[in-house]
Amino acid sequence: MMDLDHPLMVLDPTSADPYGEARRLREMGRCVPVELPQAVTAWITTDDATTREALSSRQFAKDPKHWRAFRDGEIQHDWPLMALAVGQTMLNKDGSDHARLRNPVSHAFNRRPTQSYAPRIEQITQELLDRLADEPAGAVVDIKSRYALPIPMGVICELLGIDDLAMREEFGKHTGILLLSTATPEQAGRAHAGVLTLLDELVAVKEKQPADDLTTRLLQTHLDGQLNRTELIDSLMLLVVAGHDTTVNLVTNAIKALLTHPEQLALVREGRYSWDQVIQETLRHDPPVQRVFFRFALADTPLGGVTVKAGDPVIIGLANASRDESLFTDAGSFDITREHPVTGLAFGHGAHYCLGVALARLEVATALPALFDRFPDLALATEDHPRLASQAMNGLCALPVRLRP
């Protein structure tokens, strides 16, 4: 009988083959015990049905107060993945507290407000393409840092009212380190402190100069007594990080997939399949988030053929579920023509379903066709594409391309 005292695998954030690791996990079971840094153990879901159940069942909560090892002081404060598991944000709360933290920002990401951002997204996209067009023929550029990153970062910063370009760059530098599982405690600590300092500066600006932006609205919610100061700052941090990083990975992963599958790209260019189908298959084949930390069992609960004991943490294996062979034929292949029998889990499921789905889809649906229309001869400049060393995110360190021959 499996339990957390006997992990079956150590999760490797530096793995060059995360989907091979996911396949091996599925062969062990639908929910299996694994080891994280500093010998912290947790269950991880490995297929679609079990992942979906863990995301939707009321027997699993998000608040780390239900994590037995954390509550009992067994988890050190400098644990490398602490930022993924704790924090005063909507991600780590349940019920009324979750609604209280989610509601103040939900309106900004509803479909109707999101569509109003379309002209600005198109403008940012065209400005970036114009800069890329100035590169000489044959030049190699990193399409991730030069294109995939600035679009969502620019949009979320404008939504939050972060107008200072130097501040935007500082946010990008610090948040990138926070998501790396290979960062030392000192590096992670400096990055976290750097983000907090920037957010304090942002709030101070909005206190003196309120504006029509999301930071000002959250600040007013804090002043009205609905959010405390920690919740305000942590919510802003979540918006900065989640508001751009997942979209960066989605755009980058889609570009790589199309450039390594020219026959698929041809189907889109011929108009036989849509860019929406490219996005949908990328979300399945190479989703932007690899794992979500954590859900906690409220009582001894059956899940995926095992019993998860009260207080046990469960990792949501989104990338594991995305290539579930019981749902998808030839699950490891990128195929925009395939049927998707279920709604994908890349953006979550249940009460914590990602607020920014509509905005992310709009950004990607703008970025991809614009890039390939402007640079029809776009090609990979190398066959080596190192992956981010992250337990949570699923992306590339960089994606060097040649815009023109």
UniProtKB/TrEMBL annotation:
<comment type="similarity">
    <text>Belongs to the cytochrome P450 family.</text>
</comment>
<keyword id="KW-0408">Iron</keyword>
<keyword id="KW-0479">Metal-binding</keyword>
<keyword id="KW-0503">Monooxygenase</keyword>
<dbReference type="InterPro" id="IPR001128">
    <property type="entry name" value="Cyt_P450"/>
</dbReference>
<dbReference type="Pfam" id="PF00067">
    <property type="entry name" value="p450"/>
</dbReference>
<dbReference type="InterPro" id="IPR002397">
    <property type="entry name" value="Cyt_P450_B"/>
</dbReference>
<dbReference type="InterPro" id="IPR036396">
    <property type="entry name" value="Cyt_P450_sf"/>
</dbReference>
<keyword id="KW-0560">Oxidoreductase</keyword>
<dbReference type="InterPro" id="IPR017972">
    <property type="entry name" value="Cyt_P450_CS"/>
</dbReference>
<protein>
    <submittedName>
        <fullName>Cytochrome P450</fullName>
    </submittedName>
</protein>
<keyword id="KW-0349">Heme</keyword>
